[in-house]
């Protein structure tokens, strides 16, 4: 009986130590997700504004840019998978990887070869464990993305897109990331980056996106020095800002998922501590009852012997 009580007390101490860790991680994630949300809010208007500018430039000019031209029969597609460097965030990374696997299946059904680009150690570990090949990988800083890293990824994807598929290039570029809606809602999403679709893909309905044109009047544009030069400058900047915004939304989603996961772990630890405390008390009470019974039994035996 005493050994059982010691075991319960040891488990209580172990769970209490785990609870302290999960509680600390929950508080850290809660403090960092605030800054991550602020960065998402700060960069989203710029991404939407440059997207509108790109749409207007492409729709009001007769220039066909290489980044907006679609191949009649695409043969290869690049896929950028945005995950995290660390775990303990619930199903955050696994949901993105599951969405990427579904995208690969759809692309294979369309007779397209897939060239994966990985962001985050979870994606790299997923591919290395299964001994799959990938074109490039970036690790580190997934919970606080930098614009320089987004520009590096965008430039490499553009380079692969400008290379003919017969020479190892790609005809399409897709990104799989987690879009941040709120602290309780984050959803994995697939977005085609190249060739650029000249549409309002900011999450609003067409009526909301084109509310400025409800009067039926469309703005007139003049391009200096010409439309092609403007598109050459705007399109790469658009792609970098879009990838950067996706990385920021993924970082905010990661921190929100980690906060929820650590809060759930802390609550479970509290329940385990209560359970083990109750079991220890029951074992202690049984031990005391047994000792009393032995004392009473011994006293009765002595009385009968006299």
From TrEMBL:
Its main location: membrane. One of its GO terms (cellular component) is plasma membrane. It comes from the Bacteria. CDD domains: F1-ATPase_gamma. It is found in: Cell membrane; Membrane. Keywords: ATP synthesis, Cell membrane, CF(1), Coiled coil, Hydrogen ion transport, Ion transport, Membrane, Transport. F-type ATPases have 2 components, CF(1) - the catalytic core - and CF(0) - the membrane proton channel. CF(1) has five subunits: alpha(3), beta(3), gamma(1), delta(1), epsilon(1). CF(0) has three main subunits: a, b and c. Produces ATP from ADP in the presence of a proton gradient across the membrane. The gamma chain is believed to be important in regulating ATPase activity and the flow of protons through the CF(0) complex. Belongs to the ATPase gamma chain family. This is ATP synthase gamma chain. The lineage of its organism: Bacteria, Bacillati, Actinomycetota, Actinomycetes, Micrococcales. The gene is atpG.
